[in-house]
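pasting for ref
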Amino acid sequence: MHRPCHLSILGLILGSTLAASSWAATTVAPPVAAGPWTEVHDASPAFTPDGNTVVFARGNGATRRLFAAHRHDGAWSSAQRVAFSNQWMDLEPAMAPDGRYLVFISNRPAHDAGKPLDGRWGGQAWPGRGGNLWRVDRVGDGWGTPVRLPDRVNRSSTTFSPAVAGDGSIYFMRATPADGSFRLYRSRHVHGDYQPATALALGTGAGRSDFDPAVAPDQSFLVFSSDRPPAPANGNDLFIAFAVAGGWSTPVDLGVAGNEARLGVDRTVLYYTASDHRIHRMSLAPWLGHRPVR
């Protein structure tokens, strides 16, 4: 994502538009995605199941808020700020696959009288740029009151990038205190309760970071950003990993530099932010056709 509270501002999107990939079939950057996101620094489009409502982040730094737009007769309405996103830095919305609720990141305090969360990663403090995961339910055509997810998910104020699976499990990224790098985690949702989060075994090397996950509703595959090889020096690429017996397959480089990945309605199109700070799209069909048998 393009924000100082994440790795992209620290240099993870400074690489070339394309990197080498054994499956990449094109040498042309995927196109900018059409939609109601019209400004630079719009990011993270999260769609309802029918594809006719989208929530996304707009702004840069502490100005980021969540906006929504609606599609009627094939045309998108102008984006309007959602009512609950009016004071704090809100970003990275992720829609539940059934469309009943949204999970997003905010620097808002756990209690009304508090101050914005501070973050810490990469060996330095980021005042006011921390984040926790919050949930807000759909209420008619609008939204309810955001509720912070429990401490077993929000163990630190440097917790970002939610993705919601079909069973309610939450995928996200969290900074590692030892070296400030990021890892991906999953908190399973069992009988209406979030379980203690566990790190995903994706073969991340020492000092490397994985971040910004997007997960299929059935958790059969995961797309994420990483600065692991063969990503370009001082940059990051998008990778895909598949669920296999006992964990995840070896991640495969999609050959595109980007972050803040979000799956489209049919789960075969990927939306992401490129180094131009705009939302792009690409088809995952070539990679999904090679998914391993579980």
